[in-house]
Amino acid sequence: MTTVGWVTAFVDLPPGVHEAGTRFWSAVTAYAVSPARGDEGEFTTLVPPVGDPYLKLQRTRGGGGSRGAGGSGPGTHLDLHVASPIESAAHAEGLGAEVVHRSEHGYVVLRSPGGFVLCLVHEPLGSRPSPTRWPQQHESIVDQVCLDIPPDAYEVECAFWSELTRWPVRRSVSRPEFRHLVRPDGIPLRLLLQRLDEASSGPVTGHLDLASDDRATEVARHRALGATVVGDHGGGWTVLRDPAGGLYCVTDRDPRTGLGR
Description:
2,3-Dihydroxybiphenyl 1,2-Dioxygenase, domain 1
């Protein structure tokens, strides 16, 4: 049985936009950038002032990074922190995942049934950072990864993530295209499962979401850092594009609880 003790999100950045993306996400979060590590110096961590890190950056090779992140543009993949990556990988395979790489360093790279990249790692962490309080007197935090799922893969993907994590699925009362997994206390990232429209196809992708108690002020702060607004939705979120070209959202959810307000 897989027990997920922590979740880390990776922002995967092609070489040409890696520096700009790193600067942006460091500024958006107010987290310091760690020294580079990895065989090619491709990995860095965003280090919060208090609490354990849960956001990392990877410089990809354009066609896919060393940990299996695919695609030529910016993207997102997840690390699930477990007691035994080998045993959890066997569990994931039984649920329909495909193993992409077994590292000599102990982690296992997989693709979900819908093609989303995840890594199973053994790195015990447990101190969830608090939201950042900004000079404008509002709070925000990156606290959610939204999986964007084509409709023909939606039911299988929802079942896979719930059974892999052992977290229950909850349906949205007002928006049938959304479900989320109920994360245990202390886990830094919530998983939202979004069913895309009928015309969508291809592999499952993902993006980061922030929660903020003042969305308009938070969006203005992001624009000042170089983001552009793509769309503003009455459902309580704004879609933006970061300077590296990646999409993400700022939402009206409570930055302390992650729930709607």
